[in-house]
Design brief:
CATH superfamily of the domain at 2-175 and 200-230 and 290-306: NAD(P)-binding Rossmann-like Domain
CATH topology of the domain at 2-175 and 200-230 and 290-306: Rossmann fold
Radius of gyration: 19 Å
CATH architecture of the domain at 2-175 and 200-230 and 290-306: 3-Layer(aba) Sandwich
Structural class: alpha/beta
Shape: globular
Order of helices and strands: EHEEHEHEHEEHEEHEEHEHHHH
Distance between the termini: 38 Å
Amino acid sequence: MTVVVTGASGHVGANLIRILLRRGERARALVHHDRRALEGLDVDMVQGDICDPDRLLDVFRGADVVYHTAAHISILMSEWGRLEAVNVRGVRNVVDACLRCGVRRLVHVSSIEAFSDGPPGAVIDEKHPGAGGPGVLPYARSKVAGETAVREGIARGLDAVIVNPTAIIGPHDYRGGPMGEALLRLANGSLPFLVEGGFNWVDVPDVAEGAIRAAGVAPPAAQYILGGHWISLRELAALLEEITGAPAPRWTAPMGLARLGAPLISACSHLTGQRALYTSASLRPLQGYRRVSHARATRDLGYRPRPFPETIADTVRWLEEGDYLTRVRARPRPSASYS
């Protein structure tokens, strides 16, 4: 069986490729430019762009399963053009290519942000309303539109399933996405302050395993949330301090103050050339998605997220091996318990 992974050099794609190879599957990796995540792997790497429909036909021909992990992730309010090109039109191109090439199944990796983050206290599962309305963030809007493109393909006869990971962390994040960069700055003791709130964090190998199981056993047109554990930024910083010895930030900004200061933080980051981690778009999810249910994935796919301290310990180990950390001491065994 031949499988194709789009975005194979990205965070999810790189972990997915490794698991597929360990299972003995033939993997064809679609990469755009950056190949660091796949160096040394016995994988068929092909260069291409999901924004190029003709190239996708060449890559998908003969494939049994396509895992679509390629996406543009942005915590900025100003990047709709790029988000729409990759996360909406790119998905349409993938759907069309799957239909034209006779791909047996498409697994589309979306995001928890395709679901509404309210009302406060609501349990978010697959029946929860999608993100919408005038206040929806650009990234969330692009993921909703991407899912719509997949469902339109299903109506045309495509066998596809959708998985919605929560905030992804873990090894092989060579491009340093927003989550990975925040964790790296915490592990190096270079994040000056925290903000109230947290995320439902999920281990990236768990996401990859969930996608593989969805490809194998999920009914057509199914959708699954692949969640993990809700952990505050303060708890995350404390765990990283325990593992790395890097001091956690001592000050936590109230959310109201952080929102007022977000434009100034973004402007300063632009001047210094650093990515702004606290933006108007990144602060809002910190207050939502607290009660996320992955019960359907557990029931249908046997999905069970690993304990959060194990995820962080493995991530720090990968950062150490790649010389990403500047301040490290011998790691103790994480003792914290998280539900």
